[in-house]
Design a protein that fits this description.
Helix content: 40-55%
CATH class of the largest domain: Alpha Beta
Order of helices and strands: EHEHEHEHEHHHHHH
Shape: elongated
Number of domains: 2
CATH topology of the largest domain: Rossmann fold
Number of helices: 10
Radius of gyration: 21 Å
Distance between the termini: 99 Å
């Protein structure tokens, strides 16, 4: 008999946490063995129960979630962590992955996607075998600004397999926009955006839009600024000059 995937849930909101547990335990392959709302309780539960997966909400009551993810990784190297947040904005996604999570998921994820994500992460090898994000300083040095004009072969610069339109859509997605919002911004239908996203995922060989954004950031096809990971430089204050009249 196949062994169940054991899961620790660390999420601030009790009702939402119960909903997650009910969804996960609806699959016979998954068993929720601990459900907590505080970071220190998550560390205790991880030590006592030794789960395969920890789903960590990014709005815990007592500690910053990125710190908890990093501490879980340090204490329990075999534990596979999934970060759970309100939206897939670039700084949140990279912060979650930089802390040591395998995956970021948003709180509006469907039941089917949640189950698929947990099962997929459980099947992954050790984190050391997977490509990691570069430090932000290195990423800033290596990323190139993606130009809006098309190249002669219709592909984006930097060796990307994506067309300029696909890269434009991915750039908007990286800021946390929905398909409908991207469609409105670009003057196309949400279904057209969805079709482009399907093509993007297929070309990059990734499972979802979050992985696609991280993939593009790693390779310099999107810049940190375009993905909203670095705040724009503040405008220099203007100085009013006056000429003193001669006496």
């Amino acid at each position: 008999m196949q062994q169940s995937i054991t899961v620790l849930l660390a999420e601030r909101e009790c009702l939402f946490r119960r909903g997650l547990a009910a969804c996960l335990e609806g699959d016979h392959r998954i068993r929720v063995i601990a459900s907590v709302g505080l970071a220190h309780a998550a560390l205790t539960a991880a030590a006592e129960c030794r789960p395969d997966i920890a789903v960590v909400g990014l709005t815990l009551l007592d500690e910053p979630a990125f710190g908890l993810i990093a501490e879980l990784r340090r204490r329990f190297p075999a534990l596979k962590i999934i970060g759970l947040g309100d939206r897939a904005a670039g700084d949140v996604v990279l912060g979650t992955l930089d802390a040591g999570a395998r995956k970021f998921i948003s709180r509006d994820i469907s039941e089917a996607q949640l189950l698929q994500t947990v099962i997929r992460v459980a099947q992954e090898g050790p984190l050391s075998e997977r490509p990691r994000l570069m430090p932000r300083a290195t990423t800033l040095q290596m990323t190139r600004q993606v130009r809006d004009h098309a190249t002669t072969n219709g592909f984006a610069p930097g060796g990307s397999p994506l067309t300029c339109r696909e890269l434009e859509i991915l750039r908007n997605i990286s800021t946390g926009m929905t398909n409908a919002e991207v469609g409105l911004a670009l003057g196309i239908s949400p279904q057209t955006v969805k079709n482009h996203m399907t093509a993007i995922l297929r070309k990059l060989g990734v499972g979802d839009r979050t992985e696609a954004v991280v993939h593009a950031l790693r390779r310099g096809w999107l810049s940190i600024q375009e993905a909203g990971l670095e705040p724009p430089m503040p405008a220099m204050p203007t100085t009013s000059w006056s000429i003193m009249p001669r006496r």
